[in-house]
Amino acid sequence: MRHWINSELGAINVMTVSVDPTIPERFAELAAAPLDDRRFTCVSPPWNSDVRWISAATEDAFEMFQQAFDDLGFASAVAPYIDIDKQVRMYAGFLVIRSVCTAPSFHVDWVDTNNEGFNMLTPISSNTAGFGLLYKKLNGKTAEYDYKRGEALIIGDHFSHSTAPGRSKEPVALLSFTFGTDKMEHWDKLFRTAGYQSVLLRRPDGQFHRNPDGNFNRA
Fold this sequence. Notes:
Layout: E1 5-6, E2 11-12, E3 14-18, H1 28-32, E4 40-43, E5 52-56, H2 59-72, E6 89-101, E7 107-108, E8 117-123, E9 133-136, E10 142-145, E11 151-155, E12 160-163, E13 166-180, H3 187-194, E14 200-202, E15 208-210
Antiparallel strand pairs: 1-2, 3-11, 4-5, 5-6, 6-13, 7-12, 8-11, 8-13, 9-10, 9-12, 14-15
């Protein structure tokens, strides 16, 4: 398996990269507005939180996320770990919005995908202090990562993490992407994660895939 250890964070398959903070800020108005369910969809996982994932339901809305993904340019950081033909592929983009978390819900985003897929998280709003991410270090201890303006967290295989318990007067908003290989031979494994979060996603081969309504909850 292609993996790495982040000595600073003391964990496996996670990294931080610098990004232009003005690009996530493009989504501030969308994050604060009522959901336009003609163009976007909302999924709420069964965690101890009011977290919502808002993603594109139409191809033109998808393009908003695609443009930001391309402009941020962080995909090159994980390209050495991915089996690619021509390019790192964005599968979907999300706004991750929450205002309260009462207890951790530890989980991993990717399992046994050989780091062919990743998640990225970076702040949209400026009120993320004290409402970050808990994660498990290699020594079994729990640590906390604080989201920072101008920095993105990239998560690969078997990185156990959770929203940190907290509460905010105003919702905390993050910009997130799932992305990885452009080879369809890996898609079955990647779809176990990428396939349940949104109505519309782009497969490794560049073709759009649309999920049936309501088919988003993992067991």
